[in-house]
# Entry
Amino acid sequence: MKSGLMIAVALLGTVLSTSAASGQNPAMRVEGACPGSLNIEVRGATPNGIIAILIGFQTGSTRIPSGACQGTMLGLDSRGLRVATIQRADREGTLALMPRVGPAACGKYLQAIDGRTCGTTNVVQIN
# Structure
């Protein structure tokens, strides 16, 4: 059975560019109450670029082992790590989502990765 990280890498590898990382990393902000409606915003990503939002059980240090962003260090532990969604940023490099989340999401951690630069956001806990 594949680990959560390997499944996430397999999914990311199908959409992320092979461009080299450069520039400033994007930033993530999460507001709202869990369970309930959240406002998730990623700013500073590549305009019109792909953004993958990852979810995990805890913070940690996990290096992406293969694919377009091989070697990128994540701030999430590999246990239970998975891709929550893959979306496209707008022309300013911003992604805004307003999902409803259930109790199972409460206390978990989110981090986004820019598919063009492989830049990662800060890690944010869902509260």
In short: DSSP finds one helix and ten strands in the chain. The first helix runs from residue 4 to 13. Residues 4-125 form a domain with the Immunoglobulin-like fold (CATH 2.60.40.10).
